[in-house]
């Protein structure tokens, strides 16, 4: 996993004790978690720029000042969400790719089912929505794209051992498949149509002459 460092609390300060609201469940998440939960839902729904700190506080049922205690700037909330609630699984083990020689379409389809991003649907929306304007989010997607391209290229090399000398075509094929996997959810939100990664895998296999 590639780490993103969340903001740290200034030295010499400690977490305040948040008094429970009337009727509060003792098992209810702590204030910091509630703030992040609220921000995740609001950023996914209305975007980072369209969400005020005051609205996050109201949704989390905490004072606005407590939001600033944990996150001195609103950007710190976004950075923390990306750091703590998106995980990219990096693997160097080719066996985990389940590549089958002679079956590039099936190999890519299995790769799609093992997509290395661990994040909620809301966090996925945040990643794609905020990548154009926020460096932290864009860097996370860059790392994710690099990992998916690497896996796809390695899987194709294993599925098509005779094509290893044609690295340029394999690189294009891997990048194309990675783009489909990364942006299919975003495209579905915009167009209402879902792209089938297995159908794309079959097209790529045919283009490679398999």
Give me some keywords for this one.
210 residues; Arc Repressor Mutant, subunit A; two-stranded antiparallel sheet; 2 domains; 9 helices; mainly alpha
Report what the structure shows.
- There is one protein chain.
- By secondary structure, the chain is mainly alpha-helical.
- The protein is built from nine helices and two strands.
- The longest helix has 25 residues, at 135-159.
- 59% of the residues lie in helices and 2% in strands.
- The protein has a two-stranded antiparallel sheet with strand order 1-2.
- Helix 1 (31-46) crosses helix 2 (53-60).
- The chain has two domains: 31-85, Orthogonal Bundle (Arc Repressor Mutant, subunit A); 87-207, no CATH class.
- 28% of the residues are buried.
Secondary structure layout:
Blueprint: H1 31-46, H2 53-60, H3 64-70, H4 74-85, E1 87-88, H5 104-113, E2 117-118, H6 121-130, H7 135-159, H8 167-191, H9 197-207
Antiparallel strand pairs: 1-2
Helix pairs in contact: 1-2, 1-4, 1-6, 5-7, 5-9, 6-7, 7-8, 8-9
Major sheet size, sense and barrel closure: 2 strands, antiparallel
Unreliable spans: 10-24
Q: Approximately how much beta-strand content do the residues carry? A: under 5%
Total of domains:
2
Radius of gyration from the alpha-carbon trace, in angstroms: 21 Å
Instruction: List the helices and strands in order.
Output: HHHHEHEHHHH
Could you say which structural class the secondary elements and strand pairing correspond to?
A: mainly alpha
Task: Tell me, briefly, the overall form.
Answer: elongated
The side-by-side strand order for the widest beta sheet comes to 1-2
Helix content: 55-70%
Count the helices. How many? 9
Mean pLDDT across residues: 83
Number of strands: 2
Task: State the distance separating the first and last CA atoms.
Answer: 33 Å
């Amino acid at each position: 996993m590639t780490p993103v460092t969340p903001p740290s609390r200034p030295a010499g300060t400690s977490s305040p004790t948040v008094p429970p609201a009337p009727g509060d469940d003792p098992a209810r998440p702590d204030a910091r978690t509630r703030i992040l939960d609220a921000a995740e839902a609001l950023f996914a729904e209305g975007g980072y720029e369209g969400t005020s700190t005051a609205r996050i506080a109201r949704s989390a049922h905490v004072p606005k000042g407590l939001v600033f205690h944990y996150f001195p700037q609103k950007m710190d909330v976004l950075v923390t969400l990306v750091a703590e609630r998106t995980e990219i699984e990096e693997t160097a083990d080719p066996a985990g790719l389940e590549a089958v020689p002679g079956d590039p379409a099936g190999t890519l389809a299995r790769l799609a089912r093992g997509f290395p991003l661990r994040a909620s649907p809301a966090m996925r929306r945040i990643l794609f929505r905020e990548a154009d304007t926020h460096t932290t989010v864009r860097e996370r997607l860059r790392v994710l794209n690099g990992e998916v391209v690497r896996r796809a290229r390695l899987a194709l090399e294993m599925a098509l051992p005779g094509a290893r000398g044609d690295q340029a075509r394999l690189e294009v094929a891997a990048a194309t498949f990675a783009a489909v996997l990364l942006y299919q959810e975003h495209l579905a939100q915009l167009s209402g149509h879902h792209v089938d990664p297995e159908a794309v895998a079959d097209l790529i296999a045919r283009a490679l002459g398999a």
